[in-house]
Amino acid sequence: MKVSVVLADDEPLILKGLSKLIPWEEHGMRIVGYAHDGQELLDAIEKHQPDIIISDISMPHLSGIDIIRDINQRQLPIKVIFISAYQEFSYARDAVAFGAVDYLVKPIRKIDFEAVIAKTLSLIHEEDEQDKRKNKLHLLERKDRDNEMGAWLEQLAEGTLSEYSEGYQCLTNKIYGSNYTIGVVTIDPIGNDNERWPGQTRKLVEFSIHNIVQEILEEYGRGYSYVKNERHAFVLSHDFTEEPIRVATVIKDNIANYLKLKVSVGVGKPVQQLKQLQISREQAEQALDMTYFSGLNRVILYHDQEQRKDSEGTWFTLQSKIIQSLTGGSWEDSLSTMELLLSVIESATIGNRQLAVSTCFSSLLYIVQEVKKADVPMSDLGFDIQHLQGRLGTYDTYEDMCGGIYDLLQELCNRIGDKQGNKEQTLIARVVNYIEDHYMQDISLESVAAVAFMNPYYFSSFFKKHMKRNFKQYVTDLRMKQAIVFLKHTDMMVYEIAEKVGYNNARHFSDMFKKQIGKLPQEFKNSLRS
Hints:
With 530 residues, the protein is α/β, with parallel strands linked by helices. It has 22 helices and ten strands. The longest helix has 49 residues, at 110-158.
């Protein structure tokens, strides 16, 4: 960025001469304004806010001393060079005492003018460097202070900080009020692609979220935040009970607006003393766990959950009805009854994800076993009960798990009364469609076998039997085929193509491409051009 200059003199010829005396642009400077008297110079200072003023010391309306006094009074970062006639020599020397960089006596020699300009630019550069060092030092001091405060706050929230410690006293002075509440922010597992972020990206995102949270706390009240296990916890001191929810909502919305990330925020109940923060923190964590049942990308306030009692009789009745509907060929009845069963299970296990998963697994296991015992024709394609509980545990929300259960129920219904050959063709077609829709992701034999509700070992031989090649080779062929399309018809970089076809590592993609095609991706692209 060029240094801005305003020239001032009541003689137009002097102004013209100054503007042509040196090649301003080559010195990294540009003239932004001219003035013909003291008042015009003040106006130019106000309008252009220049870095340097080169002015005659004696002009109508206001003198050079008046100008530099005004600059000093307003603490403006402007360097002043005065020009004086010989008889004004002592006057100009006094101006230097008031803060002018230097003065030149008319007529001005180019060599003297360039020397003064160089001196002035050196002063500006030196002050800029000093400001940078001060800012850097300030940032380092603030970072150290933030880290120290964050460590104390984390200990306080974990219940390990003594009331008599220096940290506790410091937090008491920093965060004071009638109520204290903890909120916990976490990045949602769906819609952010954060599982594929490299380490540097994770650190940058963590830093950005921390800044957003801290800025909002400073804007809306007294508070502080810290990061633990990729979750951002914040403590808010407040007088009104609705403030934590309002702040948490602003945090969620700002992260979405500025970082394009979806997050969920759990908020504990207020406590009246800092030493009770552990209670609020535990409640905030429990509230955040409720996203499994209530959904992601929202603010959830903690409240006591009442699990439904006396549900076992209802479970057994609904399970029996599902079995009867399946063996009787009524898909609609089995689906509607399963919806009721899953609703009962949710009410009985609300707030406990692990219990919800294990209960759903037990119900499904019972249904599948009883259907297999029933005297109905049923094709057996290696229905994978062994890995079912693990698969149910991978869903991010209860709603998603219910969707997976409906798919399994549909699969079970389809196998009843169907011929083996037709069923195998239908199933392999569904598997192939799934692979073609998800090959750009990190799919594996185990994940696709789960889609087919098969044991991975059984699925491997089943796939090879129908596709005449193993699963891994099929996926690789599909990825290379799509990579060739990108190389032929786009200007995408190799690393971009690698990500598009399912490789996190561009080097690994290039090696696989050469092994399959015989050339590296860039060599292949160059051969197309030639």
